[in-house]
Write a structure and sequence with these properties.
CATH architecture of the largest domain: Beta Barrel
Strand content: 25-35%
CATH superfamily of the largest domain: Nucleic acid-binding proteins
Structural class: alpha+beta
Radius of gyration: 54 Å
Distance between the termini: 124 Å
CATH class of the largest domain: Mainly Beta
Number of domains: 8
Number of strands: 30
Strand order of the largest sheet: 1-2-3-5-4
Largest sheet: 5 strands, mixed, barrel
Length: 687
């Protein structure tokens, strides 16, 4: 029931309990009838005042998910769709709002109202005034639509075309949703409710105003505030407020910069200095490093020679490491200044990029902008007092660090190695390679022979631990002495034998012509390593340390049958040696033919490495490994396999020491190696 009906009811008096006369009752009844007719007429007249198109004030009486009911004083509440309050939010019950009457009564007897149309009618005049005056108004970006965005101005929806959003095309418009911006109305159609606004016009006016103000103050040397607008590989463009300037990468820092993005981001605000300006085309060059002093101006006072300095490793080259002491100031640690004892082939062995290091200032050259740094100077030089620590004659017991064809390197102390030259290993025995006697990490005794501190060399000796047997060999082995020698090596010109003399072993040489075998060309076809043969001393050169022996001289004074027995034995041995060689050759040929059927593609370095890696545990002697490599190379001459590749493949994972250990632990392989010793001997002699 409406408030008007309530008023009518209150104005009609109730029946009283007082008894009236019939006449009074009749008059009162007649008066009530007249009063009711008047009130109903007034009631109907009050509703007739509400018409479509009116804007009235109503009170919110109900809010739900679909609609909002508003009491405007009509006989029924009016309904407004909830969607009209998307931006402003649903009002609370009891709130007074202005509404637009769309229809007085719909099919259900309700009044149809609109909040959006009420706002439009109320604000359209404001928009019209702003449009005519070309005023700048504030809008809120609400949502994206096809071709642009919807912007709320004065509570109304206006269309902002994509081309009018910014000075340049913007691919992502979602970034504006919910934000406010100044816009201008560029088209207004009140009847059709069509409102079009532009943000671009406002921005162009702002830029024009800023540009005019900037032209008045811009000049070379001026310090201005700007915003990073774009970043490229060669620099960054800075918006100074209507005019863009280029900040080149070389003008960003006194130090080295790989890319402008290392120190700048789009949107950063910073102060820059104008280094060049061309008014006619508004070309502006900017500088950032020019805001601070040049770091090399007072470099000597900041970095004195002999002092310590910290910095970050910014570059590693084959010849050294560059360390940034401060932006624009770098020092070089040369590779020779990195360690007193270690042999550094590349700085990355001990330094890493971006690592912070401390070094000694060795020298400062302001003119050439160079600072020399030293890393090894941070520690005492161990070579200064090494001769005091290890005087000549000192006997050391140390582990072997490495074996080379010219000697043995022994670790004297951490970082300092001493060399036992191959000529200082034995007084009497000719050493073809130290690996024949020693292994890596084996502990040996050696004596200090000399120390060269300037060249950082320590010379050691093993043979000097014993008395030189050659000093008295002419007394122990005079000419014509008959002895038994053990063959140690077979070479094309003869054989080398070991002769025991007291506690020493002396090496002697037997020429081919003195082996007492008729028509002998190659000793490896008749003799084997380890065989013992009778000999006579025919020459002893003490100065040149040469001991020449002869089998022929030994049998010269003996019966012919003894010589014949010796010759027959070696002829039989010759047949056995040749049979083994033929068998091995046939086996190699068969293996070669079998591999031809299996290997279809050219064998490369990877194939060789795979062969070696897949069989590290197998008992593979050095000769076997060489056979594999030779066969692979022979079968694939087209494959680019250099000698160094073969050597590297043999070194890892099948190093020489590994092969030797395998041979020792596998007697059957060792036996095979011994049977083929003549080939190994010949190969060694070539080396």
């Amino acid at each position: 029931m409406s408030s008007t009906e309530k008023e009518v009811k209150t104005q009609v008096p109730a029946e009283t309990a007082v008894e009236n006369s019939a006449e009074e009752k009749h008059e009162m009844s007649k008066a009530n009838e007249i009063s009711n007719e008047d009130m109903l007429k007034m009631y109907d007249d009050s509703f007739s005042n509400y018409e479509s198109g009116q804007i009235v004030t109503g009170t919110v009486v109900s809010v739900n998910d679909r609609e909002i009911l508003v009491d405007i004083g009509y006989k029924s509440e009016g309904s407004i769709p909830i969607g009209e309050f998307t931006y402003s939010g649903s009002p609370e019950v009891g709130t007074d709002i202005k509404v637009y009457i769309v229809r007085v009564e719909d099919g259900e007897g309700k009044v149809k109202l609109s909040k959006k149309q009420a706002d439009f009618q109320e604000n359209i005049q404001k928009l019209q005034a702003s449009f005519e005056k070309e005023e700048v108004i504030e809008g809120i970006f609400r949502r994206r639509v096809k071709g642009g965005m919807i912007v709320e101005v004065f509570g109304l929806e206006a269309f902002l075309p994509g081309s009018q959003i910014a000075l340049k095309p913007i691919p992502n418009l979602d970034q504006f949703i919910g934000k406010t911006a100044n816009v201008k109305i560029i088209k207004l159609d009140g009847d059709r409710k069509n409102i079009i606004v532009s943000r671009k016009d406002v921005l162009e006016e702002e830029v024009s105003e800023k540009r005019e103000k900037l032209r008045e103050i811009i000049e070379v040397g001026a310090e201005l505030e700007g915003e990073v607008k774009n970043i490229t590989s060669y620099g960054a463009f800075i918006d100074l407020g209507g005019i863009d300037g280029l900040l080149h990468i070389t003008d960003m820092s006194w130090g080295k910069i790989n890319h402008p993005s290392d120190i700048l981001n789009i949107g950063d605000k910073l102060k820059v200095k104008v280094t060049a300006y061309e008014p006619e085309n508004e070309k502006v060059s900017l500088g950032l490093k020019q805001l601070v002093p040049q770091p090399w101006e007072n470099i000597e006072s900041k970095y004195e020679e002999g002092t310590r300095a910290k910095g970050k490793v910014v570059n590693l080259t084959p010849y050294g490491a560059f360390v940034e002491l401060e932006p624009g100031v770098e020092g070089l640690i040369h590779i020779t200044e990195m360690s007193w004892t270690k042999k550094i082939t590349h700085p990355n062995q001990i330094l890493k990029l971006d690592e912070t290091v401390e070094a000694i200032i060795l020298s400062v050259d302001k003119e050439r902008k160079r600072i020399a740094l030293g890393l090894k100077q941070m520690e005492p030089n161990p070579w200064v007092a090494i001769d005091m620590k290890y005087p000549e004659g000192t006997i050391l017991k140390r582990k072997i660090k490495s074996l080379t064809d010219f000697g043995v390197f022994v670790e004297v102390e951490d970082g300092i190695d001493g060399l036992v030259h191959v000529s200082d290993i034995s007084w009497t025995k000719r050493i073809y390679h130290p690996k024949d006697l020693y292994k890596k990490n084996q502990e040996i005794e050696a004596v200090v022979l000399s120390i060269d501190k300037s060249l950082h060399r320590v010379a050691l000796g093993i043979k000097q631990l014993h008395v030189d047997p050659w000093q008295s060999l002419n007394e122990k082995l005079p000419l014509n002495t008959e002895i038994i020698g053990k063959i140690s090596k077979l070479i094309p010109k003869g054989i080398l034998v070991d002769i025991e003399s007291d506690d020493d072993v002396v090496e002697g040489f037997v020429p081919v012509s003195h082996l007492a075998i008729p028509k002998l060309d190659t000793p490896d076809e008749y003799f084997v390593v380890g065989e013992e043969i009778p000999l006579k001393v025919i020459e002893l050169d003490m100065d040149n340390r040469r001991l020449i022996l002869s089998v022929k001289a030994f049998f010269f004074s003996r019966e012919q049958d003894t010589l014949n027995t010796y010759v027959d034995f070696h002829k039989t041995q010759h047949e056995e040696i040749m049979k083994k060689k033929e068998a091995k050759k046939a086996k190699a040929e068969a293996k070669k033919e079998a591999k031809k059927d299996k290997i279809e593609a050219p064998v490369t370095e990877e194939t060789i490495e795979k062969i070696v890696e897949e069989t590290p545990e197998a008992p593979m002697a050095e000769t076997v490994v060489e056979d594999i490599v030779e066969e692979v190379v022979e079968e694939t001459p087209q494959a680019p396999i250099a000698e160094t590749v073969v050597e590297e493949t043999l070194e890892a994972p099948l190093a020489e020491t590994v092969v030797e250990e395998v041979v020792e632990e596998t007697p059957e392989v060792k036996e095979e190696e011994e049977t083929d010793s003549t080939e190994v001997e010949e190969e060694d002699s070539k080396k």
